[in-house]
Write a structure and sequence with these properties.
This protein is an alpha/beta fold. The protein has five helices and ten strands. The longest helix has 35 residues, at 59-93. The two termini are 34 Å apart.
Protein backbone atom coordinates (compact mmCIF):
# COMPACT_ATOMS: atom_id res chain seq x y z
CA UNK A 1 0.00 0.00 0.00
CA UNK A 2 1.55 3.35 -1.02
CA UNK A 3 2.36 5.75 1.79
CA UNK A 4 0.10 8.77 2.05
CA UNK A 5 1.58 12.13 1.09
CA UNK A 6 1.81 14.63 3.93
CA UNK A 7 2.37 18.30 3.14
CA UNK A 8 2.84 21.51 5.10
CA UNK A 9 1.03 24.69 4.03
CA UNK A 10 1.90 28.25 4.99
CA UNK A 11 -0.79 30.88 4.45
CA UNK A 12 0.15 34.45 3.65
CA UNK A 13 -0.74 37.69 1.87
CA UNK A 14 1.69 38.17 -1.03
CA UNK A 15 1.92 34.38 -1.32
CA UNK A 16 -1.56 33.03 -0.73
CA UNK A 17 -0.44 29.42 -0.26
CA UNK A 18 2.97 27.80 0.05
CA UNK A 19 2.83 23.99 0.09
CA UNK A 20 5.61 21.41 0.29
CA UNK A 21 6.08 17.73 0.93
CA UNK A 22 9.77 18.18 1.72
CA UNK A 23 10.98 17.44 -1.81
CA UNK A 24 9.17 20.06 -3.90
CA UNK A 25 7.32 23.28 -3.13
CA UNK A 26 4.44 25.10 -4.84
CA UNK A 27 3.81 28.80 -4.19
CA UNK A 28 0.51 30.36 -5.24
CA UNK A 29 0.59 34.12 -5.75
CA UNK A 30 -1.76 36.14 -3.58
CA UNK A 31 -1.39 39.48 -5.34
CA UNK A 32 -4.76 39.19 -7.08
CA UNK A 33 -6.51 38.56 -3.75
CA UNK A 34 -4.53 41.37 -2.12
CA UNK A 35 -5.53 43.79 -4.90
CA UNK A 36 -9.18 42.74 -4.53
CA UNK A 37 -9.13 43.39 -0.78
CA UNK A 38 -7.50 46.81 -1.28
CA UNK A 39 -10.08 47.66 -3.97
CA UNK A 40 -12.90 46.64 -1.63
CA UNK A 41 -11.66 48.82 1.21
CA UNK A 42 -11.09 51.78 -1.10
CA UNK A 43 -14.55 51.60 -2.66
CA UNK A 44 -16.19 50.99 0.71
CA UNK A 45 -14.54 54.09 2.16
CA UNK A 46 -15.58 56.14 -0.88
CA UNK A 47 -19.22 55.05 -0.64
CA UNK A 48 -19.34 55.63 3.12
CA UNK A 49 -17.89 59.10 2.73
CA UNK A 50 -20.47 59.95 0.05
CA UNK A 51 -23.27 58.61 2.26
CA UNK A 52 -22.16 60.75 5.19
CA UNK A 53 -23.14 63.90 3.25
CA UNK A 54 -26.64 62.59 2.46
CA UNK A 55 -29.74 62.23 4.58
CA UNK A 56 -30.19 58.67 5.77
CA UNK A 57 -33.07 57.04 3.93
CA UNK A 58 -33.06 59.52 1.04
CA UNK A 59 -33.06 58.40 -2.59
CA UNK A 60 -29.38 59.27 -3.05
CA UNK A 61 -28.46 57.49 0.19
CA UNK A 62 -30.31 54.33 -0.88
CA UNK A 63 -28.61 54.40 -4.28
CA UNK A 64 -25.20 54.52 -2.60
CA UNK A 65 -26.27 51.69 -0.29
CA UNK A 66 -27.18 49.49 -3.27
CA UNK A 67 -23.88 50.37 -4.93
CA UNK A 68 -22.02 49.34 -1.79
CA UNK A 69 -23.91 46.03 -1.61
CA UNK A 70 -23.13 45.20 -5.27
CA UNK A 71 -19.46 45.98 -4.76
CA UNK A 72 -19.22 43.82 -1.61
CA UNK A 73 -20.96 40.92 -3.34
CA UNK A 74 -18.66 41.21 -6.36
CA UNK A 75 -15.47 41.21 -4.30
CA UNK A 76 -16.79 38.33 -2.17
CA UNK A 77 -17.35 36.21 -5.29
CA UNK A 78 -13.90 37.12 -6.61
CA UNK A 79 -12.14 36.16 -3.37
CA UNK A 80 -14.09 32.92 -3.21
CA UNK A 81 -13.08 32.11 -6.78
CA UNK A 82 -9.41 32.87 -6.08
CA UNK A 83 -9.48 30.67 -2.99
CA UNK A 84 -10.98 27.79 -4.98
CA UNK A 85 -8.33 28.09 -7.71
CA UNK A 86 -5.49 28.35 -5.19
CA UNK A 87 -6.55 25.25 -3.27
CA UNK A 88 -7.19 23.37 -6.51
CA UNK A 89 -3.59 24.10 -7.55
CA UNK A 90 -2.31 22.53 -4.33
CA UNK A 91 -4.56 19.49 -4.75
CA UNK A 92 -3.35 19.02 -8.34
CA UNK A 93 0.30 19.23 -7.26
CA UNK A 94 -0.12 16.85 -4.29
CA UNK A 95 -3.04 14.49 -5.05
CA UNK A 96 -4.43 12.53 -2.12
CA UNK A 97 -2.35 14.44 0.42
CA UNK A 98 -3.06 15.16 4.06
CA UNK A 99 -1.98 18.66 5.02
CA UNK A 100 -0.87 20.55 8.07
CA UNK A 101 -1.82 24.22 7.85
CA UNK A 102 -0.38 27.05 9.90
CA UNK A 103 -3.10 28.34 12.19
CA UNK A 104 -3.70 32.03 11.41
CA UNK A 105 -3.30 34.37 14.35
CA UNK A 106 -4.46 37.94 13.82
CA UNK A 107 -2.90 39.06 17.11
CA UNK A 108 0.22 39.80 15.08
CA UNK A 109 -1.70 42.57 13.30
CA UNK A 110 -1.69 44.60 16.51
CA UNK A 111 2.07 45.11 16.16
CA UNK A 112 1.98 46.16 12.50
CA UNK A 113 1.37 49.44 10.75
CA UNK A 114 -2.28 50.22 9.86
CA UNK A 115 -2.04 49.22 6.18
CA UNK A 116 -0.22 45.96 6.92
CA UNK A 117 -2.63 45.18 9.75
CA UNK A 118 -5.54 45.62 7.35
CA UNK A 119 -4.00 43.12 4.94
CA UNK A 120 -3.43 40.55 7.69
CA UNK A 121 -6.91 40.89 9.16
CA UNK A 122 -8.53 40.70 5.69
CA UNK A 123 -6.72 37.53 4.60
CA UNK A 124 -9.13 34.73 3.65
CA UNK A 125 -7.32 32.13 5.75
CA UNK A 126 -10.42 30.57 7.29
CA UNK A 127 -11.93 30.02 3.84
CA UNK A 128 -8.70 28.47 2.55
CA UNK A 129 -8.46 26.05 5.49
CA UNK A 130 -12.10 25.01 5.05
CA UNK A 131 -11.61 24.33 1.33
CA UNK A 132 -8.40 22.39 1.94
CA UNK A 133 -10.22 20.28 4.53
CA UNK A 134 -12.73 18.91 2.02
CA UNK A 135 -10.55 18.94 -1.11
CA UNK A 136 -7.69 16.99 0.47
CA UNK A 137 -7.60 14.03 2.84
CA UNK A 138 -7.78 16.40 5.78
CA UNK A 139 -6.41 19.74 6.98
CA UNK A 140 -5.05 20.02 10.51
CA UNK A 141 -4.26 23.49 11.86
CA UNK A 142 -1.00 23.69 13.81
CA UNK A 143 0.87 26.47 15.60
CA UNK A 144 2.88 28.60 13.16
CA UNK A 145 4.79 30.84 15.58
CA UNK A 146 8.37 31.46 14.36
CA UNK A 147 8.00 29.00 11.46
CA UNK A 148 9.06 31.66 8.93
CA UNK A 149 12.01 32.78 11.07
CA UNK A 150 13.61 29.47 12.08
CA UNK A 151 16.17 27.83 9.82
CA UNK A 152 15.17 24.19 9.18
CA UNK A 153 18.82 23.18 8.67
CA UNK A 154 20.56 24.61 11.75
CA UNK A 155 17.65 25.85 13.85
CA UNK A 156 18.86 29.46 14.15
CA UNK A 157 16.21 32.18 14.17
CA UNK A 158 16.57 35.04 11.66
CA UNK A 159 14.28 37.93 10.73
CA UNK A 160 14.30 38.45 6.97
CA UNK A 161 12.09 39.80 4.20
CA UNK A 162 10.74 37.80 1.25
CA UNK A 163 13.96 35.79 0.82
CA UNK A 164 15.22 33.94 3.89
CA UNK A 165 18.99 34.00 4.40
CA UNK A 166 20.44 32.17 7.38
CA UNK A 167 23.45 33.89 8.95
CA UNK A 168 24.73 30.63 10.40
CA UNK A 169 24.55 27.95 7.68
CA UNK A 170 24.02 30.24 4.66
CA UNK A 171 20.83 28.58 3.39
CA UNK A 172 18.82 30.80 1.00
CA UNK A 173 15.18 30.17 0.07
CA UNK A 174 11.85 32.01 -0.17
CA UNK A 175 10.55 32.76 3.30
CA UNK A 176 7.22 31.08 2.53
CA UNK A 177 9.02 27.85 1.62
CA UNK A 178 10.85 27.97 4.96
CA UNK A 179 7.53 28.47 6.71
CA UNK A 180 5.86 25.52 4.98
CA UNK A 181 8.84 23.23 5.72
CA UNK A 182 8.70 24.16 9.40
CA UNK A 183 4.91 23.76 9.54
CA UNK A 184 5.35 20.26 8.13
CA UNK A 185 7.87 19.52 10.91
CA UNK A 186 5.52 20.90 13.57
CA UNK A 187 2.72 18.70 12.27
CA UNK A 188 4.84 15.55 12.11
CA UNK A 189 7.16 15.96 15.11
CA UNK A 190 5.36 18.69 17.12
CA UNK A 191 8.54 20.77 17.28
CA UNK A 192 10.88 22.88 15.14
CA UNK A 193 13.71 20.36 15.02
CA UNK A 194 16.87 21.20 12.99
CA UNK A 195 18.63 18.93 10.52
CA UNK A 196 16.05 19.06 7.74
CA UNK A 197 16.50 19.93 4.09
CA UNK A 198 14.93 22.67 1.99
CA UNK A 199 13.19 21.80 -1.31
CA UNK A 200 15.32 22.64 -4.34
CA UNK A 201 12.42 22.63 -6.84
CA UNK A 202 10.17 25.65 -6.24
CA UNK A 203 7.26 26.41 -8.58
CA UNK A 204 5.45 29.77 -8.65
CA UNK A 205 1.82 29.68 -9.84
CA UNK A 206 -0.72 32.46 -10.48
CA UNK A 207 -4.32 31.42 -9.71
CA UNK A 208 -5.58 33.62 -12.58
CA UNK A 209 -4.29 34.63 -15.99
CA UNK A 210 -3.50 38.33 -16.02
CA UNK A 211 -5.03 40.22 -18.97
CA UNK A 212 -2.83 42.20 -21.32
CA UNK A 213 0.69 41.73 -22.66
CA UNK A 214 2.39 42.35 -19.27
CA UNK A 215 1.96 39.44 -16.84
CA UNK A 216 3.63 41.44 -14.07
CA UNK A 217 1.21 44.37 -14.24
CA UNK A 218 -1.81 44.92 -12.00
CA UNK A 219 -4.53 42.29 -12.57
CA UNK A 220 -7.26 44.95 -12.55
CA UNK A 221 -10.88 44.29 -11.74
CA UNK A 222 -12.46 43.43 -15.10
CA UNK A 223 -13.57 39.82 -14.67
CA UNK A 224 -10.10 38.33 -14.34
CA UNK A 225 -11.45 35.48 -12.21
CA UNK A 226 -12.37 33.67 -15.42
CA UNK A 227 -8.75 33.35 -16.52
CA UNK A 228 -6.79 30.14 -16.83
CA UNK A 229 -4.05 29.32 -14.36
CA UNK A 230 -0.67 30.54 -15.48
CA UNK A 231 2.38 28.70 -14.20
CA UNK A 232 5.86 30.06 -14.04
CA UNK A 233 8.75 27.77 -15.01
CA UNK A 234 10.27 25.76 -12.19
CA UNK A 235 13.28 27.37 -10.54
CA UNK A 236 15.98 25.54 -8.70
CA UNK A 237 17.50 27.03 -5.56
CA UNK A 238 21.04 25.97 -4.89
Amino acid sequence: MPQQIVIGIDLGVNTLLAATDGAQAVLVSGRAAKATVQYRHKRLASCSQAQSTQTKGSRRWKRLQRRKARMLAKTHRRLRDLAHKATRTVVAAFPGAMCYVGKPFNDAAQHLRPKQAQQVSSACNVRLIAQLAYKTCGAIAVDEHYTSQTCPVCGERNKTRRIYRCRSCGITAPRDVIGSVNILAVGRQHALVPGRSVPHAVQWVHPVKYPGPKPGSSPGHSGNSLGISQEAPTRSLR
